Amino acid sequence: MTIAYVHGYDPRENLRLQDQASTLVELLHSDTTYSKGSTVLEAGCGVGAQTVTLASNSPGALITSIDVSEASLAEAMKAVQAAGLNNVTLRRADIFHLPFPAESFDHVFVCFVLEHLAQPVAALQALKNVLKPGGTITVIEGDHGSTFFYPDSEYARRAVRCQVEVQASAGGNALIGRALYPLLRKAGFCGVQVSPRMVYVDSSKPGLVEGFTRKTFTAMIEGIRASALAAGITSAADFDRGIADLYRTTEADGVFCYTFFKARAVNGSHAEQGSPGDAPQALRP
Q1: Of the residues 50, 60, 171, 248, which has the fewest C-beta atoms closer than 10 A?
Q2: pLDDT at 2 over 70
Q3: What is the rounded distance in angstroms from the CA atom of residue 262 to the CA atom of residue 285?
Q4: Can you tell me the distance from the alpha carbon of 163 to that of 67, in angstroms, rounded to the nearest whole number?
Q5: What are the pLDDT digits (tens) for 211-238?
Q6: What is the DSSP letter of 284?
Q7: How far apart (Å, rounded) are the C-alpha atoms in residues 80 and 133?
Q8: SS3 call for 102
Q9: In this predicted model, what pLDDT tens digit does every residue of 6-58 receive, in sequence order?
Q10: How many CB atoms lie within 10 A of CB 203?
């Protein structure tokens, strides 16, 4: 199955993904570690932006990171080698046609992947098939409907909506964070726990102003300008004003909020007991 990645694969997008990952390490990864010898499948590793943290936090675990893009895997290899990691195997593979026997992995990790898929439940079911009974899956997604900022701007909100519509037209869902619980349940997982992770940014947090509001979120919205104009869902003037207003939130009196959702679930009937001893830590609220 072809996956439409609406953000593209150019060097600018690679840099944006790296900025996003480095900015959100504590928020998204602090409560996920895997014990020595456990096998972990990272599905949709992209350029390795999350892979480095995942593998660094669990140096004794054996991480298999897959992606459909050869170009992304080449970048991921550079990132893994630069970090000096030796517990990661990179492999080209399609989530919907995984080249692994059933029950191959102790754990599965999926970050910012389901939002790009027209059939997220089918993807989760394919991943469940290669997960051992009692093994865990961890899924992280954002939700553009959780975007709030000051000063408020109708133009900025429309620009964000353009991203939602462009992604929907490609078969994805930029609002998928709120749906993780029902999606995992529908895919047959048990013991589903979802934890919202809000990014709150004001000028007292200059690292987040630069790393998240400017270089991650606004850069992402700005990057779909050509697609939004080609689709006829906005005018150049309106879109550019919306981007300017998003950058306006990075000034001294500006505020920006966005929420990610992190879910953890168990494969099979062991949900009440939790997963085996090498499971990641329980999600904190």
Answers
A1: 60
A2: no
A3: 10
A4: 23
A5: 999 999 999 999 999 999 999 999 999 9
A6: P
A7: 30
A8: coil
A9: 444 455 555 544 444 466 888 999 999 999 999 999 999 999 989 999 999 99
A10: 14
